[in-house]
Amino acid sequence: MMLKPQDIVILLKLVSQESERWSYNQLAYELVMSPAEVHAGIKRAIHSGLFDPSQRRPIKQALFEFLKHGIRYAFPPDRGGPTRGMPTGSAAAPLSSEFIDAGENPVWPTPDGELRGYEFSPLYKSVPEAAKKDSGLYELLALVDAVRGGRARERNKAIDNLERRLGLSK
Predict the structure, then answer these.
(1) How far apart, in Å, are the Cα atoms of 69 and each of 51, 84, 120, 135, 137?
(2) How many CB atoms lie within 10 A of CB 107?
(3) What's the gap between Cα 47 and its chain centre?
(4) Is 103 in the same domain as 121?
(5) Residue 128 and which of 9, 12, 27, 61 are 20 to 30 A apart at CA?
(6) Which tens digits make up the pLDDT trace of 89-133?
(7) Residues in contact with 144: Cβ distance below 8 Å, sequence separation at least 6, in sequence order
(8) 134-149 pLDDT, tens digit each
C-alpha cells in the first residue's frame, strides 16, 4: 500500500483546519474528490505512519519529515511551457514577497489563471479548485510545491515555513 499524491493533499487539508471536526463527505467536497478517494487516502496515510486513527489527525512530525526529505523524490513535478495559471511555489504567498519575480513563475494551469508562468503540475488534479476554497490549504500546497520543485533557497524557506505552520519549530 503506497502513498499517492492526493494523500498528501488530504493530510494538508486536515492540518489547515486543525481544530475542526471532519467527515469523509465534507473533505471530499472541499477537496473536489470522491469520498472513496478520501477514505482510501486516509487508509494509506495510516499505513504509512502519517495519520493517527485514534486522534483522527495527521502525525505532524512524521508529515513534516516526509515533506522535508521525501516529497520531491516521491512526487516530483512535471514542468511544461508558458501558460496562464494559479501561482504556486515561490510565486504564491507566503513566499512571493521574499523572492523577486524572474519571469519564471510556477503556475498550476487553469483556464481562469491570474498569472502567466511556466506549467507546474499540482500534486493532484483537483488542487487548484480545492485551493480556491481554502486559503490556508493553498499556502500549504504552495510551500510544498516550493519543496518539490524550487531552488535550494526556496526549498529552505518553504521548509522553515512548513515547520512553523505545523507547530514544530522551537
Answers:
(1) 18, 30, 20, 25, 20
(2) 26
(3) 20
(4) yes
(5) 61
(6) 999 999 988 877 666 899 999 989 888 999 999 999 999 999 999
(7) 8, 12, 67, 71, 123, 158, 162
(8) 999 999 999 999 999 9
Cell of 52: 493517527
Cell of 139: 499556502
Provide the domain count of the chain.
2
Return the number of other C-beta atoms located less than 10 Å from residue 56's C-beta: 11
Is the separation of the CB atoms in 131 and 86 below 8 Å? yes
**Same domain as 100, residue 46:** no
Amino acid letter for position 8: I
Residues 6+ positions from 48 with CB-CB distance below 8 Å: 1, 3, 7, 66
- Domain end call among 25, 54, 73: 73
Output b/e per residue, 139-165; b: 16+ Cβ within 10 A: bbbbbbbbbbbbeeebbebbbebbbeb
